[in-house]
Amino acid sequence: MPFSENIRLALRSIRSNLLRAILTLLIIATGIMALVGILTAIDSAIYSIGSSFSQLGSNSFTIVPYGRSFGGKRDGKTIKRGDPISYKQALEFKERYNFPADVAIDFRCTRRAEIRYEEEKTNPNVSVRAVDANFLDVEGYTITVGRNFSEVEAQNSNNRVIIGMDIVKDLFNNKPRSALDKIISVGNLKFKVIGVLASKGSSMNESSDRMVFIPLYTGKRFFGTAQTSYKLTVAVNSTTDIDNAVAAATGLFRNIRGLKLSEADDFETTKDDRLVELIRENTYYLRWSAVGIGIITLLGAAIGLMNIMLVSVTERTREIGVRKAIGASSRVILTQFLVEAVLICQIGGVVGVILGILIGNVVTALLGGAFLIPWNWMILSMIVCTLVGLFAGLYPAVKAASLDPIESLRYE
User: Fold this and answer.
1) Helices (H) and strands (E) in the chain, counts
2) 280: CB partners within 8 A, 6+ apart
3) CB-based burial label for 393 (10 Å; 0-12, 13-18, 19+)
4) Residues 238-285: tens digit of each pLDDT
5) Separation CA 231–CA 96 (nearest Å)
6) Angle of helix 274-282 relative to helix 18-55, nearest 10 degrees?
7) pTM for this model (two decimals)
8) d(C-alpha 294, C-alpha 150), whole Å
9) Is the Cβ–Cβ distance between 111 and 204 less than 8 Å?
């Protein structure tokens, strides 16, 4: 019998038992919806986070002395830190690094600065960073009023400053334009405000809005010491090039540091996409929980489908006897019932996938994410539906195929 004929017979049987088929179909659709919906929401959220970090510099990496990023300890053991990155080394790297990327140099001057304007002042908990002209773009900061430092200002001793929104709230009554061209005091030093940063919020227990940025050389002049270490941040043009960029930077910086071939790196490179990877790893168990929920629901659906198919075999015993009497083989009967079970599951799977994608993306939209079609999960769901159909339909199909045609014809 042609396969298309088996499909037609299966559809006819489904229509004749429409209510039972719909109920089973909905159970299957619910399981697939839970599976696809949760996984779609997770993937969409991760994709959205990854896109956001890309805009904020996740296509970048930093170079710092060895041991600096993990506090001088690893696996509970104290390790020897690398020598500080000097101002000269940082500038040489920036000049010689010819990979298609932007290089920024900065260092933290202090975390405990008090900023004053006339009679107003902040608490002594403002961070001051010395930065070059590339820093704001590389780190994802935006100027809402005013301008960035020029290369000339960054490389010379200019008393210019860019301030965060918290400083504007404290000193200028939350009016950014009022801050432009005003002379403020950072500790005992006077600076002219040339820009105000757009609000960026807090990260890693540090507010990006409670910062002031001064030109790199100015910071070196007033805050730098022999032990000051400058941080290098490299932002590549394409995220696919980041591994090659790290390799090129490592080779160049080893040369700048004068390391021999036999010597290990006394510096380390840290990619800024590690937070996205951490989120991805932490959703591992959540993904498998979703798979478990879907499988449990589908198991219930499989039992219901098996029951429907057994009832169908009993109701169609006489029909099976007639088909066998006119030449249908046991294999044809087996195939017919298997196709019917798989078809019910596939229809339920399609409904579940559509609902799952919609629900998953609705959740993602509420979280500010982007619409995503999870092709991998869709394919997995349809494969699972096929397996459920085969599992649920196999015993009823074998039972139908093994019926004696004479006894079947006598069945009332």
Assistant:
1) 15, 16
2) 46
3) buried
4) 777 888 999 999 999 999 999 998 888 889 988 765 555 656 666 677
5) 16
6) 160
7) 0.56
8) 57
9) no
